[in-house]
């Protein structure tokens, strides 16, 4: 209580609001917006920069009572965010909040201090240029497989929800580039002896149902057929992973492989304290961290290009200028696809999958925040204060982004775009280690699809009379998930 009252006092007259439940509590995540009780799960996404404009400062404070009395400082000021992300010791990650992600073992995401340093050091070589080349080549193979063996000679392909293709694409790339296991669109692998599920089915079930494992304790997973299947998938993926590891360790002839698992195995060979559990924990976390984030970003990117055909045409013309003869793009050409990168950056600005990045203050300190008028305010930040980097509020902050509601990829082609005000991958030493992984697969996917197909929104009779704004709101509607989730993006891919 003493700590809490010190935190509240330190806010002096700074803008604050009180709710019973914090966003960190289960109820805070379940309840809708009820003034004084809960902010609602989608609050950060829906409110964007508005609460800060109203408060007159690019930081607001939320006083909460459950799970315990606390003050959460939410930031949309680029300089303050840079300071927080750069100072890992002063503003560490509240790892307790991530412990639920340790089902397969401790890992890089759910650790801090020396453990995290060790994991990061071992994981870093896995995200090398050689792995990026593998990601590119595997992505090209997966998209060609989609074109040839799923879409075939059809002139137009109707997809009821774009996630139906972006989730498998992201999963197949992870299967190949993280686990070294190729998965194809059509083939159904059989169930190997000693297993009740194939690797493909286990990895699919696990990645689609992570949130169930996060929410339900193990005993409750036995209650329904669906949760029992999810539990089985987790057990099966665990044993598939351990088998892959043991096969690689015991292989007589070591193949030269560049997938994440092989790199982790090589890098951990000199560290006897790095166990198989550390390996499964870290490989699994790449799946959690890299699947939904990538699939949702691809889905919103396709939706935006379909909603804004002029932007799609600019992108198509740029891709065509590089691949004039219709050939496949190569990894070496990746830096040339500047428009593809700009489209992704603009989508990640408008739809950052991770809406809030949590930190806390490990000492009594202060942060300087600004406002639209150019004033500065020094906010005392007592030890124990929770901090949230609000990526949505920052990305829609008009101090940094002109007309933030507009989809304008060209802003990322300007040499002086505000880099500190763009943090979809966080920043500083704990920034996303998979950023280049995503960019590599993303550019290969977008370039191949746009060079062959024109993306349009599916026309449906029941929506014939809607305005552009209504259509946009419908197509871009999102719900909460591990990351912000598009509800239904119906598209048509028309062969060019
Ligand atoms: C659009 C794609 C992606 C986005 C927007 C994204 C975003 C983020 C963010 C915001 C963080 C910081 C989280 C925090 O501090 O709580 C993070 C960390 C991380 N991401 Fe990503 N990510 C993406 C793709 C990937 C991929 C493809 C992988 C791996 C294959 C990956 C692996 C990781 C890992 C291991 C961390 C923890 C790093 C550490 O703590 O040292 N991410 N990501």
UniProtKB/TrEMBL annotation:
Its main location: membrane. Its cofactor is heme. InterPro entries: Cyt_P450, Cyt_P450_CS, Cyt_P450_E_grp-I, Cyt_P450_sf, Cytochrome_P450_monoxygenase. GO terms for molecular function: heme binding; iron ion binding; monooxygenase activity; oxidoreductase activity, acting on paired donors, with incorporation or reduction of molecular oxygen. The keyword Transmembrane applies. Heme binds at residue 432. Keywords: Heme, Iron, Membrane, Metal-binding, Monooxygenase, Oxidoreductase, Signal, Transmembrane, Transmembrane helix. It is found in: Membrane. Gene3D superfamilies: Cytochrome P450. It holds the Pfam family p450. Pathway: Secondary metabolite biosynthesis; terpenoid biosynthesis. One of its GO terms (cellular component) is membrane. It comes from the Eukaryota. Belongs to the cytochrome P450 family. This is Cytochrome P450. The lineage of its organism: Eukaryota, Fungi, Dikarya, Basidiomycota, Agaricomycotina.
């Amino acid at each position: 209580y003493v700590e809490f009252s010190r935190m509240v006092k330190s806010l002096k007259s700074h803008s604050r609001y009180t709710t019973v439940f914090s966003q960190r509590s289960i109820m805070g995540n379940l309840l809708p917006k009820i003034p004084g009780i809960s902010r609602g799960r989608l609050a950060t996404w829906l409110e964007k920069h508005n609460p800060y404009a109203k408060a007159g400062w690019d930081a607001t404070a939320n006083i909460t009572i459950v799970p315990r009395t606390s003050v959460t400082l939410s930031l949309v000021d680029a300089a303050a965010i840079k300071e927080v992300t750069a100072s890992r010791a002063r503003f560490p990650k509240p790892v307790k909040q991530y412990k639920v992600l340790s089902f397969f073992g401790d890992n890089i995401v759910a650790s801090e201090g020396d453990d995290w340093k060790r994991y990061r050091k071992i994981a870093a070589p896995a995200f090398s240029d050689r792995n990026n080349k593998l990601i590119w080549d595997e992505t090209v193979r997966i998209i060609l497989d989609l074109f040839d063996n799923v879409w075939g000679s059809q002139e137009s392909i109707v997809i009821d929800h774009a996630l139906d293709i972006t989730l498998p694409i992201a999963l197949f790339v992870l299967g190949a580039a993280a686990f070294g296991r190729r998965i194809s669109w059509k083939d159904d692998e059989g169930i190997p002896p000693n297993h009740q599920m194939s690797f493909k089915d286990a990895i699919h079930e696990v990645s689609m149902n992570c949130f169930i494992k996060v929410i339900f304790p193990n005993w409750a997973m036995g209650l329904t057929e669906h949760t029992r299947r999810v539990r089985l998938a987790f057990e099966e993926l665990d044993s598939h992973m351990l088998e892959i590891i043991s096969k690689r360790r015991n292989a007589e002839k070591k193949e030269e492989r560049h997938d994440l698992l092989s790199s982790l195995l090589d890098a951990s060979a000199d560290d006897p304290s790095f166990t198989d559990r550390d390996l499964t924990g870290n490989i699994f976390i790449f799946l959690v961290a890299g699947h939904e984030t990538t699939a949702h970003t691809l889905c919103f990117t396709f939706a935006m290009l379909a909603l804004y055909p002029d932007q799609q045409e600019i992108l198509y013309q740029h891709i065509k200028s590089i691949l004039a003869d219709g050939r496949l793009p190569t990894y070496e050409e990746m830096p040339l696809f500047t428009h593809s990168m700009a489209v992704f950056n603009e989508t990640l600005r408008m739809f950052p999958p991770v809406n809030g990045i949590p930190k806390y203050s490990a000492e009594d300190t202060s942060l300087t925040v600004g406002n639209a008028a150019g004033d500065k305010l020094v906010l005392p930040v007592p030890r124990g204060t929770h901090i949230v980097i609000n990526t949505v509020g920052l990305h829609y902050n008009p101090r940094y982004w002109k007309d933030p509601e507009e989809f304008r990829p060209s802003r990322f082609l300007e040499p002086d775009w505000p880099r500190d005000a763009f943090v979809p991958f966080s920043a500083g030493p704990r920034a996303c280690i998979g950023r280049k992984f995503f960019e590599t697969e993303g550019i290969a996917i977008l370039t191949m699809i746009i060079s062959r197909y024109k993306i349009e929104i599916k026309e449906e009779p029941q929506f014939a009379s809607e305005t552009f704004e209504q259509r946009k709101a419908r197509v871009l509607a999102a719900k909460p998930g591990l990351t912000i989730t598009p509800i239904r993006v119906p598209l048509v891919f028309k062969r060019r």
